């Protein structure tokens, strides 16, 4: 199972252009995932504002169901923007998705509530979330292709690890913002207008991301492809017919990060407050420790993957999570603040190892002409099925089993699936790797 496609050797970007390209990709990614992730941080308030309060657990499940449903739009967005990116270029698609994400997030901040319009409120919320999902589906494959096609071969792991670091930084920014709001507003103030603030901020952030992405030209690899008249007119069809086995590898390899990110990084504030019963200050400390550890560890793991290879780091992370996740959740659920910080930080560091090499690993599987389409299909399908449903499944498992550590079982299963996929996957022989050796 090898890749044999040929493509022109790409020119390399000068250091100044590379720096601007990385900043454009990373800043835009920060904006995208702040917009997308802040929903989870406001989940308990949204349950009150957008759904009937007669059953709090049912309302929270409805919020997370809305969160999960948005992920079903991600493959559609990935198919649309991935195919478009392979035909017209990464840069224009990335500029478009950051605008769409910012506008749909801003729209949530101005929606009427359940008390104002009844069942229309959750319908409008769902519509905005679907638009967010459509945008997010186009972001990750475009950004991964963009960064990896600019990066020199011996730094792809390091530079592409900045994408998940930007995602986590966006979540951290959202967590800190919510902590400031909850510390300075009463419960009534949060329920009446405070919850809107994180969503309204999305608009100016989006304009910054758009400006940066419009200021950089498309990648050297894509421009070389266009110059050689070798761009694929039907990249989506070519991906499905010619890259299916590698797409399946990308699907499985994503499980550790896809589930880990949404169980630990996104769902954690709700878990700490509603299940482990930490106060707001402790919740912020624990969440921040996990996120900061995750962010700091990402470039370290990415740099390691440049030295030892992507698969050893990814497999090691997945196996470690199979072993460590359950005791880490025991620390979080049954220990004090210090124990919970230790558990959260440990999970954050290991999930970083499952994320840092992932985007370079996926990008290196596929030739330039179908890269964005192929990564979109594998990554977004995995996150749709297993990642987006993680907060809902975690809440459901706790409710049904009565166990505070029930979410750990889901992450253990996902990590085991990723480890098995990676262990069975052969080494890619794509022409992109030939270009990597030349760079």
Can you describe this structure in just a few lines?
It is found in: Cell membrane. By secondary structure, the chain is an all-alpha fold.
**Total strand count, please?**
0
CATH topology: Growth Hormone, Chain: A
- Can you tell me the CATH superfamily? MFS general substrate transporter like domains
Please state the structural category.
mainly alpha
Radius of gyration over all CA atoms, rounded: 21 Å
Quickly count the domains: 1
Instruction: Give a quick account of the main beta sheet: strands, pairing sense, barrel closure.
Output: none
Query: Shape, please?
Result: globular
What is the correct CATH architecture? Up-down Bundle
Summed up, the helix count is 25
Q: Using the coordinates above, name the CATH class.
A: Mainly Alpha
Strand content: under 5%
Q: Spans with pLDDT under 50 lasting ≥5 residues?
A: 1-9, 430-439
Give me the strand/helix succession: HHHHHHHHHHHHHHHHHHHHHHHHH
Polypeptide structure, described:
There is one protein chain. The protein has one domain (15-438): Up-down Bundle (Growth Hormone, Chain: A), CATH 1.20.1250. 80% of the residues lie in helices and 0% in strands. The protein has 25 helices and no strands. The longest helix is centred in the first third of the chain and has 31 residues, at 120-150. The relative contact order is 0.17. The protein starts with 14 loop residues before the first helix and ends with a helix. By secondary structure, the protein is mainly α. It is globular. Residues 1-9 and 430-439 have low confidence and may be disordered.
């Amino acid at each position: 199972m090898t890749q044999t496609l040929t493509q022109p050797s790409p020119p390399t970007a000068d250091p100044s252009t590379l720096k601007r390209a990385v900043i454009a990709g990373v800043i835009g990614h920060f904006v995208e995932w702040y917009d997308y992730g802040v929903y989870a941080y406001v989940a308990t308030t949204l349950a009150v504002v957008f759904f009937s309060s007669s059953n709090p657990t049912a309302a929270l499940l409805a919020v997370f169901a809305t969160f999960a449903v948005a992920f079903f739009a991600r493959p559609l967005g990935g198919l649309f923007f991935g195919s478009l990116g392979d035909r017209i270029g990464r840069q224009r698609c990335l500029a478009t998705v950051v605008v769409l994400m910012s506008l749909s997030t801003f729209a949530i901040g101005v929606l009427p509530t359940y008390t104002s319009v009844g069942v229309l409120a959750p319908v409008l919320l769902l519509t905005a979330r679907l638009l967010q999902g459509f945008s997010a589906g186009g972001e990750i494959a475009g950004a991964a292709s963009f960064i990896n096609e600019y990066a020199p071969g011996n730094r792809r792991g390091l530079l592409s690890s900045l994408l998940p670091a930007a995602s986590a930084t966006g979540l951290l920014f959202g967590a800190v913002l919510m902590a400031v709001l909850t510390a300075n507003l009463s419960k009534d103030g949060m329920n009446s207008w405070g919850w809107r603030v994180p969503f309204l901020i999305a608009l100016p952030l989006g304009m910054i991301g758009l400006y940066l992405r419009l200021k950089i030209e498309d990648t050297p690899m894509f421009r070389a492809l266009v110059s050689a008249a070798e761009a694929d007119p039907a990249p989506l069809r070519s991906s499905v017919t010619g890259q299916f086995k590698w797409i399946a590898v990308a699907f499985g390899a994503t499980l550790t990060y896809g589930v880990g990110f949404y169980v630990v990084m996104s769902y954690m504030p709700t878990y700490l407050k509603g299940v482990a019963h930490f106060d707001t200050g402790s919740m912020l400390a624990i969440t921040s420790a996990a996120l900061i550890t995750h962010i700091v560890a990402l470039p370290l793991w990415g740099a390691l993957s440049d030295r030892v290879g992507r698969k050893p780091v990814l497999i090691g992370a997945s196996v470690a999570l199979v072993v460590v996740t359950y005791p880490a959740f025991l620390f979080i659920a049954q220990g004090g603040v210090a124990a919970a910080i230790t558990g959260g930080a440990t999970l954050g560091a290991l999930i970083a190892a499952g994320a840092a090499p992932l985007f370079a690993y996926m990008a290196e599987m596929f030739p330039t002409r179908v890269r964005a389409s192929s990564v979109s299909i594998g990554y977004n399908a995995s996150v749709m099925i297993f990642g987006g449903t993680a907060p809902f499944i975690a809440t459901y498992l706790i409710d049904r089993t009565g166990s505070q550590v029930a979410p750990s079982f889901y992450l253990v299963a996902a990590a085991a699936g990723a480890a098995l996929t990676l262990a069975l996957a052969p080494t890619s022989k794509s022409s992109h790797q030939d270009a990597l050796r030349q760079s």
